[in-house]
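Bumping my old thread because nobody answered last time. Still need a sequence for this structure:
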Protein backbone atom coordinates (compact mmCIF):
# COMPACT_ATOMS: atom_id res chain seq x y z
CA UNK A 1 0.00 0.00 0.00
CA UNK A 2 2.84 2.35 0.85
CA UNK A 3 4.43 1.70 -2.50
CA UNK A 4 1.18 2.56 -4.30
CA UNK A 5 0.79 5.79 -2.36
CA UNK A 6 4.40 6.76 -3.11
CA UNK A 7 3.81 6.09 -6.84
CA UNK A 8 0.68 8.26 -6.92
CA UNK A 9 2.50 11.03 -5.12
CA UNK A 10 5.36 10.91 -7.60
CA UNK A 11 2.93 11.01 -10.53
CA UNK A 12 1.13 14.05 -9.05
CA UNK A 13 4.47 15.75 -8.60
CA UNK A 14 5.41 15.18 -12.24
CA UNK A 15 2.00 16.49 -13.36
CA UNK A 16 2.36 19.65 -11.29
CA UNK A 17 5.87 20.20 -12.66
CA UNK A 18 4.61 19.88 -16.25
CA UNK A 19 1.77 22.35 -15.57
CA UNK A 20 4.32 24.85 -14.29
CA UNK A 21 6.31 24.47 -17.50
CA UNK A 22 3.19 25.05 -19.62
CA UNK A 23 2.27 28.16 -17.64
CA UNK A 24 5.79 29.50 -18.00
CA UNK A 25 5.72 28.87 -21.79
CA UNK A 26 2.34 30.58 -22.33
CA UNK A 27 2.51 33.94 -24.24
CA UNK A 28 2.54 37.05 -22.09
CA UNK A 29 -0.90 38.51 -21.56
CA UNK A 30 -2.66 35.32 -22.51
CA UNK A 31 -5.87 34.94 -20.56
CA UNK A 32 -6.98 31.64 -21.96
CA UNK A 33 -6.98 28.54 -19.79
CA UNK A 34 -4.08 26.17 -19.95
CA UNK A 35 -5.09 22.59 -20.67
CA UNK A 36 -3.71 20.27 -18.05
CA UNK A 37 -2.59 16.76 -18.84
CA UNK A 38 -4.77 13.96 -17.65
CA UNK A 39 -3.70 12.66 -14.27
CA UNK A 40 -2.46 9.13 -14.63
CA UNK A 41 -1.63 9.52 -18.33
CA UNK A 42 1.76 8.36 -19.48
CA UNK A 43 4.29 11.15 -19.79
CA UNK A 44 6.64 9.15 -21.96
CA UNK A 45 4.91 10.22 -25.19
CA UNK A 46 5.60 13.30 -27.26
CA UNK A 47 5.84 16.56 -25.33
CA UNK A 48 2.70 18.67 -25.15
CA UNK A 49 2.60 21.76 -27.33
CA UNK A 50 2.32 25.10 -25.68
CA UNK A 51 -0.79 27.18 -26.45
CA UNK A 52 -0.30 29.22 -29.61
CA UNK A 53 2.44 26.98 -30.94
CA UNK A 54 2.32 26.34 -34.70
CA UNK A 55 0.93 23.02 -35.85
CA UNK A 56 3.31 20.81 -37.87
CA UNK A 57 2.67 20.91 -41.61
CA UNK A 58 1.14 17.82 -43.22
CA UNK A 59 3.78 15.25 -43.96
CA UNK A 60 6.38 16.89 -41.72
CA UNK A 61 8.11 14.60 -39.16
CA UNK A 62 7.04 14.96 -35.56
CA UNK A 63 9.40 15.07 -32.66
CA UNK A 64 8.48 11.50 -31.75
CA UNK A 65 9.63 10.23 -35.18
CA UNK A 66 6.10 9.70 -36.52
CA UNK A 67 4.68 11.53 -39.50
CA UNK A 68 1.43 13.43 -39.64
CA UNK A 69 -1.14 12.52 -42.27
CA UNK A 70 0.25 13.30 -45.73
CA UNK A 71 -1.56 15.77 -47.95
CA UNK A 72 -2.82 14.46 -51.31
CA UNK A 73 -0.52 15.20 -54.27
CA UNK A 74 -1.21 18.42 -56.09
CA UNK A 75 -2.65 18.13 -59.60
CA UNK A 76 -0.21 18.43 -62.47
CA UNK A 77 0.28 21.91 -63.83
CA UNK A 78 -0.14 20.47 -67.34
CA UNK A 79 -3.47 18.76 -66.64
CA UNK A 80 -3.87 15.32 -68.17
CA UNK A 81 -0.74 13.41 -69.16
CA UNK A 82 0.28 13.52 -72.84
CA UNK A 83 -1.39 11.00 -75.13
CA UNK A 84 0.51 7.92 -76.15
CA UNK A 85 2.06 7.62 -79.60
CA UNK A 86 -0.71 5.22 -80.59
CA UNK A 87 -3.42 7.71 -79.61
CA UNK A 88 -1.67 10.54 -81.44
CA UNK A 89 -1.34 8.37 -84.56
CA UNK A 90 -4.98 7.33 -84.28
CA UNK A 91 -6.09 10.96 -84.25
CA UNK A 92 -3.95 11.73 -87.30
CA UNK A 93 -5.39 8.73 -89.14
CA UNK A 94 -8.96 9.79 -88.36
CA UNK A 95 -8.29 13.25 -89.74
CA UNK A 96 -6.76 11.79 -92.90
CA UNK A 97 -9.76 9.53 -93.44
CA UNK A 98 -12.03 12.55 -93.02
CA UNK A 99 -10.43 14.09 -96.11
CA UNK A 100 -11.02 10.96 -98.24
CA UNK A 101 -11.08 7.19 -98.01
CA UNK A 102 -7.72 5.43 -98.10
CA UNK A 103 -6.41 1.92 -98.49
CA UNK A 104 -4.60 0.31 -95.60
CA UNK A 105 -1.20 0.64 -97.28
CA UNK A 106 -1.86 4.24 -98.23
CA UNK A 107 -2.78 5.18 -94.65
CA UNK A 108 0.21 3.25 -93.28
CA UNK A 109 2.64 5.13 -95.52
CA UNK A 110 0.93 8.41 -94.73
CA UNK A 111 1.46 7.89 -90.98
CA UNK A 112 5.10 6.92 -91.44
CA UNK A 113 5.70 10.07 -93.49
CA UNK A 114 4.36 11.97 -90.48
CA UNK A 115 7.06 10.51 -88.22
CA UNK A 116 4.92 7.72 -86.76
CA UNK A 117 6.98 4.59 -86.14
CA UNK A 118 6.24 1.67 -88.49
CA UNK A 119 5.13 -0.49 -85.55
CA UNK A 120 2.58 2.06 -84.34
CA UNK A 121 1.39 2.77 -87.90
CA UNK A 122 0.83 -0.95 -88.41
CA UNK A 123 -1.07 -1.20 -85.11
CA UNK A 124 -3.34 1.72 -86.07
CA UNK A 125 -4.10 0.25 -89.50
CA UNK A 126 -4.80 -3.16 -87.95
CA UNK A 127 -7.18 -1.60 -85.43
CA UNK A 128 -8.96 0.47 -88.10
CA UNK A 129 -9.31 -2.62 -90.27
CA UNK A 130 -10.76 -4.53 -87.34
CA UNK A 131 -13.48 -1.95 -86.70
CA UNK A 132 -14.22 -1.38 -90.40
CA UNK A 133 -12.70 2.07 -90.86
CA UNK A 134 -10.26 0.53 -93.34
CA UNK A 135 -11.69 -1.82 -95.99
CA UNK A 136 -9.59 -2.20 -99.11
CA UNK A 137 -12.37 -3.84 -101.13
CA UNK A 138 -14.84 -1.06 -100.30
CA UNK A 139 -12.16 1.54 -101.00
CA UNK A 140 -11.41 -0.06 -104.41
CA UNK A 141 -15.09 -0.16 -105.37
CA UNK A 142 -15.55 3.50 -104.51
CA UNK A 143 -12.36 4.45 -106.34
CA UNK A 144 -13.46 2.61 -109.48
CA UNK A 145 -16.94 4.15 -109.40
CA UNK A 146 -15.63 7.70 -108.89
CA UNK A 147 -12.81 7.51 -111.45
CA UNK A 148 -14.96 5.72 -113.98
CA UNK A 149 -17.68 8.36 -113.73
CA UNK A 150 -15.39 11.42 -113.65
CA UNK A 151 -12.60 10.37 -116.02
CA UNK A 152 -13.98 7.40 -118.00
CA UNK A 153 -10.88 5.40 -117.11
CA UNK A 154 -10.31 1.95 -118.53
CA UNK A 155 -9.99 -1.15 -116.38
CA UNK A 156 -6.26 -1.26 -117.12
CA UNK A 157 -5.76 2.31 -115.88
CA UNK A 158 -7.87 1.62 -112.77
CA UNK A 159 -5.84 -1.50 -112.04
CA UNK A 160 -2.64 0.53 -112.20
CA UNK A 161 -3.99 3.20 -109.88
CA UNK A 162 -5.30 0.73 -107.30
CA UNK A 163 -1.99 -1.10 -107.34
CA UNK A 164 -0.22 2.18 -106.63
CA UNK A 165 -2.58 2.67 -103.68
CA UNK A 166 -1.40 -0.62 -102.22
CA UNK A 167 -4.54 -2.65 -102.86
CA UNK A 168 -3.74 -6.35 -103.22
CA UNK A 169 -4.05 -7.94 -106.67
CA UNK A 170 -6.79 -10.43 -105.66
CA UNK A 171 -8.90 -7.55 -104.35
CA UNK A 172 -8.35 -5.58 -107.56
CA UNK A 173 -9.33 -8.59 -109.65
CA UNK A 174 -12.51 -9.04 -107.64
CA UNK A 175 -13.54 -5.38 -107.87
CA UNK A 176 -12.77 -4.98 -111.58
CA UNK A 177 -14.64 -8.20 -112.28
CA UNK A 178 -17.76 -6.52 -110.90
CA UNK A 179 -17.72 -3.80 -113.59
CA UNK A 180 -20.76 -4.26 -115.76
CA UNK A 181 -20.27 -1.67 -118.51
CA UNK A 182 -18.33 -2.43 -121.69
CA UNK A 183 -14.89 -0.96 -122.25
CA UNK A 184 -15.80 -0.27 -125.87
CA UNK A 185 -19.01 1.53 -124.91
CA UNK A 186 -17.10 3.62 -122.34
CA UNK A 187 -14.43 4.53 -124.90
CA UNK A 188 -17.02 5.50 -127.50
CA UNK A 189 -18.89 7.66 -125.03
CA UNK A 190 -15.66 9.46 -124.13
CA UNK A 191 -14.76 9.91 -127.80
CA UNK A 192 -18.15 11.48 -128.54
CA UNK A 193 -17.77 13.94 -125.70
CA UNK A 194 -14.27 14.90 -126.77
CA UNK A 195 -15.29 15.19 -130.41
CA UNK A 196 -17.71 18.00 -129.54
CA UNK A 197 -14.72 20.13 -128.45
CA UNK A 198 -12.83 19.64 -131.75
CA UNK A 199 -14.93 21.68 -134.14
CA UNK A 200 -12.92 23.31 -136.92
CA UNK A 201 -10.15 20.68 -136.88
CA UNK A 202 -9.30 18.47 -139.81
CA UNK A 203 -10.25 14.80 -139.72
CA UNK A 204 -6.62 13.81 -139.34
CA UNK A 205 -6.17 16.08 -136.33
CA UNK A 206 -9.38 14.74 -134.79
CA UNK A 207 -8.21 11.15 -135.19
CA UNK A 208 -4.85 11.89 -133.62
CA UNK A 209 -6.34 13.71 -130.65
CA UNK A 210 -9.03 11.13 -129.96
CA UNK A 211 -6.53 8.31 -130.23
CA UNK A 212 -4.15 10.06 -127.83
CA UNK A 213 -6.82 10.88 -125.26
CA UNK A 214 -8.30 7.39 -125.22
CA UNK A 215 -4.84 5.88 -124.95
CA UNK A 216 -3.97 8.02 -121.92
CA UNK A 217 -7.02 6.61 -120.14
CA UNK A 218 -5.64 3.13 -120.52
CA UNK A 219 -7.79 1.70 -123.31
CA UNK A 220 -5.95 -0.89 -125.40
CA UNK A 221 -5.21 -0.02 -129.04
CA UNK A 222 -7.90 -2.37 -130.37
CA UNK A 223 -10.59 -0.68 -128.27
CA UNK A 224 -9.30 2.78 -129.23
CA UNK A 225 -9.47 1.93 -132.93
CA UNK A 226 -13.02 0.62 -132.75
CA UNK A 227 -14.21 3.58 -130.66
CA UNK A 228 -12.70 6.24 -132.93
CA UNK A 229 -14.03 4.60 -136.12
CA UNK A 230 -17.50 4.22 -134.61
CA UNK A 231 -17.65 7.86 -133.53
CA UNK A 232 -16.30 9.29 -136.77
CA UNK A 233 -18.70 7.11 -138.77
CA UNK A 234 -21.47 9.08 -137.10
CA UNK A 235 -20.03 12.28 -138.59
CA UNK A 236 -20.58 13.11 -142.32
CA UNK A 237 -17.40 12.46 -144.28
CA UNK A 238 -15.95 10.07 -141.73
CA UNK A 239 -16.48 6.85 -143.65
CA UNK A 240 -12.98 6.76 -145.13
CA UNK A 241 -11.06 7.23 -141.88
CA UNK A 242 -10.47 3.59 -141.01
CA UNK A 243 -7.05 3.46 -142.61
CA UNK A 244 -5.93 6.62 -140.86
CA UNK A 245 -6.87 5.21 -137.42
CA UNK A 246 -5.08 1.99 -138.23
CA UNK A 247 -1.88 3.94 -138.93
CA UNK A 248 -1.91 5.75 -135.56
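Sorry it took so long. Here it is:
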Amino acid sequence: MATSEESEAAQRARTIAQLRKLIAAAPAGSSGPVAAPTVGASLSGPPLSAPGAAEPSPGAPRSDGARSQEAPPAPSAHGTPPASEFEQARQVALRRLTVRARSGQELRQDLIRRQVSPQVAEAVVARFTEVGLIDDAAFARQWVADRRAAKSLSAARLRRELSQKGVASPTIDQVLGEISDSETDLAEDLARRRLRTMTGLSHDAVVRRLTSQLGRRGFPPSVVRRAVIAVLDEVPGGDDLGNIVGDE
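Confidence is low (pLDDT under 50) at residues 26-53, 66-82, 239-248. Let me know if any region looks off to you.
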